[in-house]
Design goal:
The structure holds 2 protein chains of 2 kinds.
Chain A (H helix, E strand, L loop, with lengths): L4 H13 L4 E17 L2 E19 L2 E7 L4 H17 L33 H18 L3 E20 L4 E19 L2 E4 L2 E5 L8 H13 L10 E7 L1 H15 L1 H5 L20 E3 L22 E5 L2 E2 L6 H6 L8 E2 L7 E2 L4 E3 L6 H6 L3 E9 L9 E12 L2 E14 H6 L1 E4 L9 E2 L3 E9 L5
Parallel strand pairs in A: 8-15, 14-19
Antiparallel strand pairs in A: 1-2, 1-4, 2-3, 4-5, 5-6, 5-7, 8-20, 9-10, 9-14, 10-11, 12-13, 15-16, 16-17, 17-20, 18-20
Helix pairs in contact in A: 3-4
Chain B lengths: L5 H8 L4 H11 L6 E17 L2 E19 L2 E7 L4 H11 L15 E2 L18 H18 L3 E19 L3 E20 L2 E11 L9 E2 L4 E2 H17 L6 E8 L6 H8 L4 H5 L20 E4 L20 E6 L2 E2 L6 H7 L7 E2 L8 E2 L3 E4 L6 H6 L3 E13 L5 E13 L2 E6 L3 E5 H4 L3 E4 L4 E2 L5 E4 L2 E4 L1 E4 L2 E9 L3
Parallel strand pairs in B: 4-6, 10-17, 16-25
Antiparallel strand pairs in B: 1-2, 1-5, 2-3, 5-6, 6-7, 8-9, 10-26, 11-12, 11-16, 12-13, 14-15, 17-18, 18-19, 18-20, 20-26, 21-26, 22-25, 23-24
Helix pairs in contact in B: 2-3, 4-5
The chains are: A alpha+beta, B alpha+beta.
Chain lengths: 451, 484
């Protein structure tokens, strides 16, 4: 059962007939397929068809929100009545409301987000891609003796958004992803790592052979990992882990964290928050980007924004509500999900490349850590305190020397961003949140006794 | 609790008959399939949040769908749709059986209702059926109580959420099970500010209870349950205002009772889930019967504790939950099974096959995981430490089940100096090795406590509610990830 913008507008009209002053409807309809293989055999085939409708109604400054995956007329009528009743008993919120129609997108650009060819592929062809990727990992190194498998996933998502301020728009996007997770063993000790490729279009994925070989190399290099002594040293983040660092920054720049004063970057607009080498953009218009979209979750136009420029904070990440709380206009970063009010999200949030190759960065470190994996939840957005479990490779005299594990790295995000000493030239654009290799001048590595 | 049982609810709501379900099952079993099931779910949920002294968000959600699963040895096919109809079930059935080789049609056994031996959450009125205004008032009270704790409490954020989930499961062995699961929680977060420094504290609880659970008086003059949550969140934020940098490196660590049981969940529990062990990808693979902990340690997973967040009458494959001994006096005794892995490993079912929703196929998961109490007095445990860390509250944790390395992050901890608890220290991540961390447990307290009921566990993209529990324990050495 599919849904159209006309139906959304009809439902909003009914809400207004019931006395609502405003309202909006956000509909997500998706299909996805995932085929997993393990040890050359199919392990799992998963086929999904899902949808959700999220309805907000406003009675002046009172509002409520409901959502459902049941699109029958009877259910939607009941939902509408429920939502109106809930809104009427909700307290007033002076900042509640839709954006003014004057700020909504007038033209909806048609970005090339949809893969029209992937639908022609058979399940057998997709499974074969995963089998080839896993095989490539096994043939890359004799120490790859087991596997968590390989998987090929395609999704397609249709978004419809309509609001009583006059905005309505739809778009369809897709993505394909291939991943491999091999397990290597040596001297009775196992290590696992993974690699993946995700693109808007299936045919643009990295080859199965390349994904498998990278996964194997990342796994094998962890064999023989040991603990190191507790010490303060420079820490180099590989691009995957550097991306996780700027994701922490994005959380701290969310308008919701800021107006609640639950961010270490509260009141920092215009301030120096990172070293000169750090420039971060959020670009919803990036061609082929996984975060690209033609309008934001409240119908605002997509524009590229500079968030941090040479270390100076140029913009927060705001939607209409959090903007009003901070007396600032929305930055067009409203994000919607099934069953939730607008929140703040990034689109293609990228730290731009710097002048150094990853090899040059590693060569600049006499003794330090190259981080390839972080685990845990030791990030405090309120204070910036940061303490995470780490896996990586020890750098001795400017070269990767031996793998390390069962250690933590700790510092404070405020200082860590100011202490980014070198920015790599190896940015990959095919991730929603991405950064090149980064070197932080000093952090505390905790492991065995102090050396 | 509900006047209508979920079985009748689904058949009536979606206009399905038992014979149509049999025909769907027949479609799945048209190939060489060992096991198949149909999983129907209809969930309603509500959430209300408060900030800046006022209720800000009120929402209700309905989620429905049906999944069809086919299992052939190690292979699983799963397909779902949230339009529940005979036509969509037949389409899902065809996709799900893709994994199997062609075979002959098979007789589908007659379907009969299995009943669970448990009735763990006999709730008369599910919280979602009570007026929203009652929940708004609860949040407003939480706000006032937290602010009254100390003038340095500047921000209070509180949220209430409840759901009721109806499930109906039909399997190819002819079994049919249904359940109605209530669940609610209340969370409080406070931000304290003093001289430009801001710190956060949080606390919450809940379970599969009546709404009045939050208003019950707790023993020992603590007050009512919701008051306790508000005061604890505020107290923790205030404590953290004076926290000094956490030490870095290996040291003796004492874990307080309750929430710190997340240690067991990460270090031990995930590694004992049967899927990883069947595949030989867990650091615990092939180690049944071996010593993995000190003799003081007995670790249990128990899905049958009444009202707990991690408890279930039956798992998401219709198997009654049970109490499973994972480690007994230090010896590894058992794994946690779903149907597929129990069949492949030829082991009995434990009732641990769980899924987040109809959009997911089941896998082995924990329920409530805890360590049995020992004999030591908590005060005696603290007194025995010359220099170490006393951690009483944790945020989240994570484990790499293959290497066995796990972390969990403290959000309230203190130094122990010469047998006394001294300065509060900033939150730090603790890191260790699952297969040997419990061998370093040198004292176990007599004060087993379960967590207050807000835990959620993530695995392969699926979140399920869980519980943990621990008495006060002493670990002779674990690496503390501080900066000092």
């Amino acid at each position: 059962m599919s849904f159209s913008l006309d139906q959304a507008n009809d439902l909003l009209k009914e809400a207004q007939d019931k006395g609502a002053t405003d309202g909006d409807i956000f509909v997500l309809q998706g299909e996805s397929f995932e085929g997993s293989v393990r040890l050359k055999e199919i392990e799992k085939v998963n086929d999904a068809r899902g949808k959700s409708l999220t309805l907000r109604v406003f009675f002046g400054k009172r509002h409520a929100m409901t959502s459902t995956s049941d699109f029958t007329k009877k259910s939607l009528d009941a939902l509408l009545s429920d939502t109106c009743n809930l809104a009427k008993i909700s307290p007033e919120d002076r900042c509640a409301g839709l954006p003014e129609s004057s700020v909504c997108a007038k033209v909806i650009p048609s970005f090339d987000l949809f893969d029209s060819e992937v639908g022609n592929l058979s399940i057998d062809e997709k499974i074969d891609m995963a089998i080839r990727a896993e095989r490539a990992a096994f043939s890359a190194d004799p120490r790859i003796l087991n596997s968590e498998g390989a998987s090929l996933c395609n999704t397609q998502t249709t978004v419809h958004y309509a609001a009583t301020n006059g905005f309505s728009g739809s778009y369809i996007g897709s993505s394909s992803s291939l991943s491999v997770s091999p397990i290597a063993s040596e001297n009775g000790v196992m290590q696992r790592d993974y690699w993946y490729s995700t693109r808007r279009k299936y045919k643009e994925l990295e080859s199965a052979e390349s994904v498998g070989a990278t996964a194997a190399a990342r796994t094998v290099r962890r064999l023989g990992a040991r603990k190191v002594a507790t010490q303060n040293v420079p820490v180099v983040f590989d691009p995957e882990m550097a991306a996780s660092l700027i994701a922490c920054l994005a959380s701290a720049l969310s308008g919701y964290a800021l107006y609640k004063q639950a961010s270490f970057l509260t009141d920092h607009l215009g301030a120096k928050i990172a070293s000169d080498g750090v420039t971060i953009e959020d670009d919803p218009t990036l061609a082929g980007g996984l975060g690209t979209k033609p309008f934001d979750g409240e119908g605002l136009p997509s524009t590229k924004k500079s968030i941090v420029e040479k270390g100076t904070l140029k913009s927060y990440l705001l939607d209409t509500y959090s903007g009003k709380k901070l007396n600032l206009p929305s930055t067009g970063n409203a994000s919607r999900g099934p069953g939730s009010s607008p929140s703040v999200g990034t689109t293609n949030f990228h730290l731009l490349p710097g002048p150094y190759s990853p090899e040059e960065i590693i060569a600049s470190v006499r003794s330090g850590l190259y981080v390839t994996e972080l685990i845990g939840f030791g990030v405090n957005t309120v204070t910036g305190d940061y303490s995470q479990g780490a896996v990586g490779i020890w750098i001795s005299d400017g070269a990767l020397a031996y793998p390390v594990e069962e250690i933590t790295i700790a510092g404070n995000l405020k200082e860590m961003f100011l202490n980014i000493e070198q920015v790599g030239n190896d940015l990959s654009l095919f991730k929603r949140v991405a950064a090149p290799t980064l070197k932080i001048a000093q952090m505390t590595v905790a492991g065995s006794e102090r050396g | 609790m509900q006047t209508i049982n979920p079985e009748d609810f689904f058949l009536t709501k979606y206009d399905l008959s038992p014979s149509q379900l049999t025909s769907v099952m027949g479609r799945v079993l048209g190939k060489k399939i060992d096991y198949a099931d149909l999983y129907f779910e209809y969930s309603t949920s509500e959430s209300i949040s408060l900030e800046e002294g006022a209720v800000k968000k009120v929402s209700k959600n309905i989620s429905q769908g049906a999944g069809v699963r086919a299992v052939a040895a190690e292979k699983t096919g799963y397909a779902y749709s949230d339009d529940i109809s005979l036509e969509n079930l037949l389409v899902s059935a065809k996709t799900a059986r893709y994994i199997a080789k062609e075979g002959d049609d098979r007789q589908v056994p007659a379907i009969k209702t299995d009943s669970s031996p448990h009735d763990l959450y006999p709730v008369e009125t599910v919280p979602i059926d009570l007026p929203v205004e009652e929940k708004m008032r609860l949040l407003e009270s939480v706000d006032q109580i937290a602010r009254a704790v100390d003038p340095r409490i500047k921000k209070v954020m509180a949220s209430y959420a409840s759901e009721v989930k109806r499930v109906f499961i039909v399997n190819s062995k002819g079994g049919m099970t249904h359940d109605t699961l209530p669940l609610m929680r209340l969370n409080v977060t406070c931000i304290a500010e003093d001289g430009g420094r801001r710190e956060v504290g949080s606390f919450g609880g809940g379970g599969r209870h009546e709404f009045r659970f939050f208003f019950e008086m707790l023993p020992g003059a603590i007050g009512r349950r919701f008051e306790h949550y508000a005061k604890e969140a505020a107290r923790q934020a205030i404590i953290n205002l004076s926290a000094i940098d956490s030490p870095a490196g290996p040291m003796e660590v004492v874990l307080g009772p309750g929430w710190p049981g997340i240690l067991l969940h990460e270090a031990i529990g995930h590694g004992l889930e049967a899927d990883f062990n069947r595949k030989g990808t867990s650091a615990f693979s092939g180690r049944l019967g071996e010593r993995v902990a000190s003799t003081l340690c007995t670790v249990i997973d128990d899905g049958t504790i009444p009202g707990r967040r991690g408890s279930l009458n039956c798992d998401d494959e219709g198997v009654p939950t049970s109490r499973t001994v994972l480690i007994e006096n230090g010896i590894l005794k058992g794994y946690l099974f779903d149907r597929q892995n129990a069949a492949l490993m030829k082991m009995p079912l434990t009732g641990n096959g769980r899924r987040e929703s109809y959009a997911h196929s089941p896998m082995p998961r924990m329920t409530n995981t805890f360590m049995l109490a020992g004999n030591a007095l908590p005060s005696e445990i603290i007194r025995s430490v010359r220099r170490g860390l006393y951690a009483v509250s944790f945020g989240g944790g994570q484990v790499d089940i293959t290497s066995g390395k796990f972390v969990f992050s403290a959000n309230e901890a203190y130094l122990i100096e010469d047998g006394k608890i001294t300065s509060p220290v900033k939150g730090a991540t603790l890191i260790g090795n699952g297969p040997d961390i419990l061998t370093k447990v040198t004292m176990v307290g007599n004060d087993l406590a379960l967590d207050p009921g807000v835990g959620t566990c993530g695995k392969e993209g699926q979140s399920v509610p869980v519980g943990v529990g621990l008495p006060t324990i002493k670990i002779s050495e674990i690496t503390v990830g501080g900066t000092a």
